[in-house]
Every structure is written in structure tokens, then in C-alpha cells.
Design brief:
By secondary structure, this protein is an alpha+beta fold. 42% of the residues lie in helices and 18% in strands. The chain has 19 helices and 16 strands. The chain binds histidyl-adenosine monophosphate.
């Protein structure tokens, strides 16, 4: 018999169970309603995509891509898993064929290993045919297997760490630039990042997000299409208004919106600022921690993100991006703020808000909420004009955000707003075999009328039935004995206060409906 083994959810992943899943459903349903009200439609995307998509969009040097992605090499199903030695020649031929047809990606290393493998195979084949000494043959086979093992025999894929990249990929793939612009999409689902798990931080976590994409008309595109327009600022503000309206509807507490502009990549804007920042950081390098020291070279903007206590006073004295924006980006930022004020959205400016993904430009924002400790960001987003183009599409503007659903749930629970709905509306305590048919009919009718009903599969003693109803959190017990069935007058007990009443079948429905409304 197989040895007993206990399986557990993998570190950083978790099971979501009822009744908590009711809260998850409520949070998701509210998003559908609020986002729908702003004209957004749902997009459902694959959980895995080519690694290269995220590397290009999010940035190869970012933590998300360089350290945290779950990557794997898929393998063509046309290739045998463990080819026998006598079939290796055919296996190599098949790899060559799949490379030619594009089913195996053309990776340099694979082509080199393939060449070596072919040579090794020739030696092995000759030795096999000539039946040379086994010692020498074994070495050749080992070499051959090593080459085969080193080949990338399928596409390099990754579990999605975020989906803005996927939304842009889908926008291009489905020619959405031809639809009425802008295209407004929302999504929800699991994301994967290999981070150190802690409260509010998981390796499989859930995001609810939205994106607005707008392809720029050709005649504008041929010119300076990245120039900000007043329309862009209004879109930024409306997207932020929408997420704030959503949080208000959920009753999330201690919500704070931080906004910033990180300009655009021109020398007269962000690039010039980053040079100045780098020079200033070089001067204080000795006082910075190892992470920040490294970032001076790799990504100086990220130093501003540091939470290290010892670095705070130094960072406060660094040059600020707001003082180095080009006129166009400065105008855009001012207009976003005016538009937010028009919409009654309270915000705080935070010049250190740079975000950890490479695709942003101009507006960036983050929202925090109460009850979350150090992982208190419940939403992050910003503008990403040019990302669709970077992924092979037409010149397109974009703005969006993603909400950390796990954190929203935690914050609601901490505030005592995570209360699950009643377990059941009605528990049917039926007694006597003759009442079963009536009990089944009552359960069916009540369920059709939208009530949650528990019908015990076997007859129970009265006391036990009421005890069970209580445990399940039922609000009412419908007591069906032979007398009730005969008289058509059913007894209903309100479990919270023990009061009882008698109702006809129709009267019962009416009573329950009134209690619910
Ligand atoms: P992000 O800031 O990487 O942005 O993630 C957005 C939110 O997802 C965070 O504010 C946080 O609430 C949640 N989150 C991130 N990592 C974890 C984790 N390990 N565990 C739990 N929650 C987490 C993005 O992903 C961008 N795609 C947002 C965006 C959309 N920008 C434009 N459009």
C-alpha cells in the first residue's frame, strides 16, 4: 500500500473557504457593478504567457521580472519524454523539424546543442554499429544526453505576475484599435510572484484591475503623439475617481490616495532628472544601504522607494522630479489635479511615488488603507502611453490600476466589515416519513424564491434538528410534522428569539420575504 502522505498548500498560497468566500464574492460583485457603471467591460486572460511579454512590458531589470516570476519551459507534445537510446537519432531529427516549423523557439543555445548532439549521436551510432568497447560508448552516450538535456525544447513561459502586459497583448491580437476608442476593460483573478510571504503578501494573490486604452489617430501618430492632451488628464482623473468610488462603496476605511508625475522619458524631462538624481546620490553613496547603493546604477528612481529608516533624511534632501518636469508633463499633472478636485477626490502629492514597473510615464498613483501593517498599498496604477507600441501594436495611450484583493479583504475584516452573510435562511426540521414529500417541495419552492435552505437528508429528532439549525446559523426553522402537513398550517420558529408562528404555504413565503426586505 502507498505510504500515507499529508499534502499542504504550497508556501505563499492559500485556500479560501466559505463563509469568507462570500466576502470575496461581494468585493468582486461590487467591482463589476461600479466598473460597469463607468462603461468598462470584463476581459478574461490566460494565466500564463510568454516570459518575454512580461520582460518587455514590466522591464527585465525589475524585481518582478528578474527575481519573482514563476517560469517554466514548456515542451512540444510531439517529442517523446524519455527517448530510448535506439530512438535518439529519430528524436534529433524531430527536434530539427520542430525548430524549422517554429514549434520550438529558435534560441541560439538550442541550435548549438543540437549541432553537438548530432555529432555525438553519429559517434554513438557508429560505435553501436561497430560494437566498439562499451567504456568509450558510455562516455559518448552521456555526452549526447547532456546536450539533449540542455536544449530548450519548447517556449519559455511564465505565470502572470500582473496583467497590464496581457491586456495590451490581447488589445493588439484582437485589433481592438479598430473599436470605438477608448477601450475600457476590467479584469480579476490570480497573479503570481515569488515574494517573501507575510501578512498581505502572498505568492498567489488576487488582483482586480482596469485599463483604458486609446489608439492615437494616424495623422497625430505621425507627429509627436506622446504629447499630453487635456483629454488624457480627464481620463486619468476619471479612472482614479472610479477606484475611489469603488472603495467608498465597499466601506474601506482609512483610504488615502497618493499621486505623482514621473514625466516622460525625454532628456528635457525624466531622463535629465534621473541624471541629476544619480549625481546627487553618488555624493551621499557612503551613507546609503547596500540595496540603494546598487540601485544608483541599475535604477536610481527606485532609491526613492526605500523604507529604510536611516535613509529617510537623506532622501528628503534629494532633487525632486516635480521641479524637473518638461512644460508638457507639468501641465498634464496640474490638469489631473484640477480634474480630481472637480470630482471631489481628495489626494496627497507624493514626489517619491515612482512604482516598481518600467512602463509608467506621467501620472502614477497608489492607494493605502487601514489595518494592513507594512503591506498597506491596496491599489497601484498609472499612465503607460507607448506600451502597446513597445509590444508591437499601434501608437496607443494607456492608463490603469490594479487593486490587491487579498489586502482589501483583510482591511474590511480588520474593520469588522467582513461579516459573512447568514449561513442559511431556513432549516427544514421534518419528522415522520410521510412529511418528506412536503419537505422536499417546500425546500424546492423556497430555493426558487431565492432563500438558502438546508434540508436534512434523514429524519431527525426535534431537539437535534434545532441544534443543527443553530450550528449552521439558520435564521428560521420550518417545523414539519404530520400534524402540520395534515392541517396545511406550517410552524416557523425564529431562532434568534424563539418566537413561533403558523403559516399556510403561501403565507410562509410572504412572511420570509418581508423579513428579508
Ligand atoms: P502593482 O503595484 O505591482 O501594480 O500591484 C498592484 C497591487 O497588487 C498592489 O498595490 C497590491 O495591493 C497588490 N499586490 C502586489 N503584489 C502582491 C502580493 N505579493 N500579495 C498580495 N498583494 C499584492 C501592478 O500590478 C500593475 N499591473 C497595476 C497597473 C495596471 N498599472 C496600470 N495598470
Amino acid at each position: 500500500m502507498a505510504e500515507k502522505r499529508k499534502f499542504q498548500a504550497i508556501k505563499g498560497t492559500r485556500d479560501l473557504l466559505p463563509p469568507e468566500t462570500e466576502l470575496w464574492n461581494r468585493v468582486e460583485q461590487t467591482a463589476r457593478e461600479v466598473f460597469g457603471g463607468f462603461g468598462f467591460g470584463e476581459i478574461r486572460l490566460p494565466i500564463f504567457e510568454p516570459t518575454e511579454l512580461f520582460a518587455r512590458a514590466v522591464g527585465g531589470e525589475t524585481d518582478i521580472v528578474s527575481k519573482e516570476m514563476y517560469r517554466f519551459i514548456d515542451r512540444s507534445e510531439k517529442l517523446e519524454r524519455n527517448p530510448k537510446i535506439r530512438n535518439l537519432g529519430r528524436f534529433i531529427e524531430k527536434v530539427k523539424h520542430l525548430l524549422k516549423s517554429g514549434e520550438i523557439p529558435e534560441v541560439d543555445a538550442t541550435e548549438v546543442y543540437l549541432e553537438h548532439a548530432e555529432e555525438s549521436w553519429k559517434k554513438v551510432e557508429t560505435a553501436l554499429l561497430e560494437t566498439a568497447g562499451p567504456e568509450h560508448l558510455l562516455d559518448d552516450i552521456d555526452e549526447l544526453l547532456a546536450y539533449i538535456g540542455a536544449m530548450q525544447l519548447g517556449p519559455d513561459l511564465a505565470l502572470r505576475p500582473e496583467v497590464t502586459a496581457s491586456v495590451c497583448r490581447a488589445y493588439i491580437e484582437h485589433g481592438m484599435h479598430a473599436l470605438a476608442q477608448p477601450v475600457k476593460l476590467y479584469y480579476m483573478g490570480p497573479m503570481f510572484r515569488r515574494e517573501r510571504p507575510q501578512k498581505g503578501r502572498y505568492r498567489q494573490f488576487y488582483q482586480i484591475g482596469a485599463e483604458v486604452l486609446e489608439t492615437v489617430r494616424k495623422e497625430v501618430a505621425s507627429g509627436e503623439w506622446l504629447v499630453a492632451s487635456a483629454k488624457d488628464a480627464a481620463t486619468d482623473a476619471e479612472v482614479i475617481e472610479m477606484v475611489m468610488a469603488y472603495f467608498a462603496r465597499l466601506g474601506l476605511e482609512g483610504v488615502q490616495l497618493d499621486i505623482n508625475s514621473i514625466g516622460h522619458s525625454a532628456p528635457a524631462c525624466r531622463r535629465g532628472y534621473v541624471e541629476k538624481l544619480k549625481a546627487a546620490l553618488e555624493k551621499v553613496k557612503d551613507k546609503l544601504g547596500a540595496d540603494s547603493q546598487r540601485r544608483i546604477e541599475t535604477n536610481p528612481l527606485r532609491v526613492l522607494d526605500s523604507k529604510l529608516e536611516s535613509e529617510q533624511a537623506i532622501i528628503e534632501k534629494l532633487p525632486r522630479i516635480g521641479d524637473h518636469l518638461c512644460a508638457d508633463c507639468a501641465k498634464h499633472h496640474a490638469e489631473v489635479k484640477r480634474q480630481l478636485e472637480l470630482r471631489g477626490v481628495a489626494y496627497q502629492e507624493n514626489w517619491r511615488l515612482v512604482r516598481g514597473l518600467d512602463y509608467y510615464m506621467r501620472t502614477t498613483f497608489e492607494i493605502t488603507a487601514r489595518g494592513l501593517g507594512s503591506q498597506n498599498a491596496v491599489c497601484g496604477g498609472g499612465r503607460y502611453d507607448g506600451l502597446v507600441e513597445l509590444l508591437g501594436g499601434p501608437p496607443t495611450k494607456g492608463i490603469g490600476f490594479a487593486i490587491g484583493e487579498d489586502r482589501v479583504i483583510l482591511s474590511l475584516q480588520e474593520a469588522g466589515k467582513g461579516g459573512a452573510a447568514q449561513g442559511r435562511d431556513v432549516y427544514i426540521a421534518w419528522m415522520g416519513e410521510k412529511t418528506l414529500a412536503t419537505a422536499i417541495r417546500a425546500a424546492r419552492d423556497l430555493r426558487q424564491a431565492g432563500f438558502r435552505v438546508e434540508l436534512p437528508p434523514v429524519e431527525q429528532k426535534f431537539g437535534k434538528a434545532l441544534g443543527q439549525a443553530d450550528k449552521l446559523g439558520a435564521r428560521y426553522a420550518l417545523i414539519l410534522g404530520e400534524d402540520e402537513v395534515a392541517s396545511g398550517q406550517w410552524t416557523v420558529k425564529t431562532l434568534a428569539d424563539g418566537t413561533q408562528g403558523k403559516y399556510s404555504e403561501a403565507g410562509l413565503l410572504e412572511f420570509l420575504r418581508k423579513q428579508k426586505s
